[in-house]
Amino acid sequence: MNVPAVPERNTPARPLRDPYQAYLDSLQSPESRRTMKGCLDRIARLITGDPRATGAGQPWERLRYEHTVRLRSLMREQGWSPAHVNKHLVALRRVLKEAWRLGLMSGEDYQRATDLPPYRHTRLPAGRHVEPEMLAAALRVCDADESPAGRRDGALLALLYSTGCRRAEVAALTLADFDPWDRSLRVRGKGDKERFVYLTVAAAERLDRWLAVRGRADGPLFCPINKAGRLRLAHMTGQAIADIVTRRLTAAGAAKRTPHDFRRTFIGELLDAGVDLATAQALVGHASPATTARYDRRPERRRRDAVDRLTIPGPRR
């Protein structure tokens, strides 16, 4: 891959001092571990040229500035977006920091190798709006399904629309997180930060109907259901949540949407309704109000209205 040569290890791999594993172990969320593992594995493939390579056991501590700056260029040459490259640079900096913490590289080598500026860019938020008619159609499909999965999926879609939670946050919810008296859910977000979100009356009713099927035993709020309709009280994955959204919308004849589209819609609806930015930020768990503001649809509407004031002359007759 035309990466400057990385010196080979002088000693056999030392699993207990592997920066790759140390970094992944430091991450609190399974979703974060999965994401950053993928980033480091892709970087390892860039370094080695081996499409089967992973980051485990790689000589990360041998990387120097000439290697890391070349990797940064290679990522762009692969056609990766600036945001995608920057996510991989975060993973690269962190695995090198673990190498320094483990005493495998000097502080000076670590500082030089990680002196990589991120790619500056401006992008509109990914995803599309979930129209109320689209949600209504999907909920009708769930209601027509008399199996336990119909109750579960109807509650899940209503919860996503009512709270704007991330798919990993929904997957991690437990029964103990739900307070039916004030229709609230205790959510653990990124960085293990807790917050309260609230269900609409209709969403809470759907959740109650699901719990009548699920039962009140401790465990995950949403759980897998096999083809025979039997429930298994185990946490679902974020991908399983996304698969349910896709399956129910497809069955309703609606265009594809993702859990993040529900989140985008939730923020946009709040801001359209005049909810202040700080409240919207707190409800969705963004670290910065600037992130929440990116989902504000009102400036785009004002720009469109401004353009609509222009008049294009009609054809001569």
UniProtKB/TrEMBL annotation:
One Pfam family recorded for the sequence: Phage_integrase
Domain Tyr recombinase: 123-308
Region (Disordered): 289-317
Core-binding (CB) domain span: 14-100
GO biological process: DNA integration; DNA recombination
Molecular function GO labels: DNA binding
InterPro entries registered for this protein in UniProt: CB, DNA_brk_join_enz, Integrase-like_cat_sf, Integrase_catalytic, Tyrosine_recombinase_XerCD
Highest taxon listed in the record's lineage: Bacteria
Keywords: DNA recombination, DNA-binding
Compositional bias segments (type: Basic and acidic residues): 294-308
Protein name, entry field: Integrase family protein
